[in-house]
User: Fold this.
Amino acid sequence: MSERSDQGDLLVVRGLVAGYGAAPVLHAVDLTVPAGTIAAVVGANGAGKTTLLRAISGMLRPLAGGVQLAGEDLRGTPVEQLVRRGMAHVPEGRGVIGELTVDENLRLGGLWRRDRADAARALDEVYQLFEPLARRRRHLGHQLSGGERQMLALGRALVGRPRLLLLDEPSLGLAPRVVARTMALLRQLRDRTGLTVLLVEQNVRSALSVADQGVVMALGRVVTTAPAADLRDDADLRHAYLGF
Amino acid sequence: MDRFVFLTLDGLSRGAVYAAFALALVLIWRAARVVNFAQGAMAVAAAYVAYSVSAATGSYWLGFLAALAAGLLFGAVVDRVVMRYVDHASPLNPVIVALGLVLLIQAVLGMVYGSEFRPAGTPFSREGFTVGGLALLSPYDLFVFAAVAVVVSALAWIFARTAVGLRMRAAAFAPEVSRLLGVNVGGMLTLGWALASGVGALAAMLVIPTELGLHPHAMDLVFVSAFTAAVVGGLDSPPGAVVGGLVVGLVLSYVSGYAGSDLTPLAVLVLLLAVLLVRPGGLFAPVAARRV
Assistant:
């Protein structure tokens, strides 16, 4: 396990403008995630949450602004190099490859690593963490249930031992019990390994319950950044942007 | 009965070559969603390289190795220099570009080597062993079977058991997710083209000596047969391509043996049409839907 590093900001986003075609979806977004913390980006449908994650991981080329990971500028870094810098992105819909087996999906997450022994150790750890996956190693991805796919996507990211985990709507389509378990796991990973998480969620309640920091987005802008606990308790803000 | 045995063995021997060539088509289809109509011309170009090397060195085997290397190289070049810049939004675009490549390659070969048939040698005798007056497989047939078996097994092993095979499959199924997991998707695509083109070159080396000889159009009919084989097996299925190749080889052998060789090109088209009408996904079409 990597030592826990609380000092400094792991992810710094400055003036990020991005979108599809000519019209930007994100308008000069600023965001800072300290190392070893969980940040939750919440907001209505179409607020630009998914676009934000895609622009951070380079799947979408930013039109302006920049992203720094542990002080390193990521501009011009090819997407396939980001795992090597310690960033894992679990995309919307989770990106489990249905034609590959559970085991192949998981091994894929560590294939880029030079340290083969540690990649094998990380794979074993993920199987211990997600018992149901260990029982279904030879099953194809598309044979899994929604909850199992969630585990597989998360596990595959963890096999790469990331410093920063980008999670897009982990609660989507899952039973509340499964969502609660996922959120508890994120907190556990943060505490045990110093993992930093940037989480995008429609499910505001569960996202703010696990996060240290809440980021409220509306129409492609960051409206408010505050400790998650404060956001949970701020009735005006909840009514205005989060609808509960 | 004797005739049936002979035609069956002969059909399997040709079928092995179709299987290899169909497998090459399937490899590119799986990796890039392109039916590589230029594969025949590319394979012939590799065979001409073998011809030049063998003529210069006097060694069949050096030419054989040169053909394989040239095949790998041509595949990579076609991907990097041509196909990468083709807009794949419409499936027709890469097909038209591939057909353009056929014209280009065949024209260049015609200019450099002329368009007469050149003799193509074999490393083993094509004289069949006779058992009790019945002509069976020749040493060359056995060489063909062995070469195809080695290549098919090697490819199966690469894709199923190695890290690079896993990367190639992942890149083909889910390019975006694969990039997020650190896979160099463009590199895997180039590798897929190279492997497929290498297999195509092998098939050309095996089949050309059994036909009229080396000629810029030497693989045209083989391409049609192999394409039929790939469709019979379902374009997505490597085992299907191998079985499809053997089936097409047998059908053509029986048709040419019992009904006359004039009918074989027609028989290929009838088979292609029949499969497309009855089972458009091919005999080995996966049961599950692709999209998840």
Q: What stands out?
A: Residues 23-216 of chain B form one domain. DSSP finds eleven helices and two strands in chain B. Residues 287-292 of chain B have pLDDT under 50 and may be disordered. The interface with chain A takes residues 163, 166-167, 169-170, 173-174, 176-185, 288, 290, 292 of chain B (CB under 8 Å).
